Amino acid sequence: MSTVQTFQDRIVRPAEQVLITGRSLASIWRDQQAGNYPPSIRIGENAVGVRLSALMAWLDSREIITPENTKPVAPGRKTVGRPRKQQKAEV
User: Fold this and answer.
1) Which CATH class is domain 3-63?
2) Is the pTM of this model over 0.85?
3) What is the pLDDT of residue 87?
4) 28, 32, 38, 48: which is deepest, by most CB within 10 A?
5) CB-based contacts of 54: which residues, under 8 Å, 6+ apart?
């Protein structure tokens, strides 16, 4: 096994998964529960991770955003979040 293959198959802990994927731990956990994320490997009594090669393959399988597969949003409208609360008028 070459050095590159060994490096590709190393175990990536959750904090590094966040850096690699750009997703929060909560989002990663939800995807794992739904079966939409590489399986975790137990590396100790209280330690888990995923293989870097499996994580990179998962990233490569994600859909690439194009104008054909996106939904347009009305101009001037926020795309995410709750509506703002109305402020009380001062008396």
Assistant:
1) mainly alpha
2) no
3) 73
4) 38
5) 38, 39
Using CA atoms of 41, 57, 12, 37 in order, give the dihedral in degrees to the nearest 10. Answer: -50
Q: Which long-range contacts (CB under 8 A, 24 or more apart) does 57-65 make?
A: 59/20, 59/21
H helix or E strand, kind and range, residue 47: strand 47-51
Where along the chain do its domains lie? 3-63
Task: Report the SS3 class of residue 2.
Answer: coil
Cα 54 to Cα 2: distance, rounded to the nearest angstrom: 18
Cβ-in-10-Å burial (0-12, 13-18, 19+) of 23 comes to middle
Scored b (16 or more CB within 10 A) or e, 41-57 reads: eeeeeeeebbbbebbee
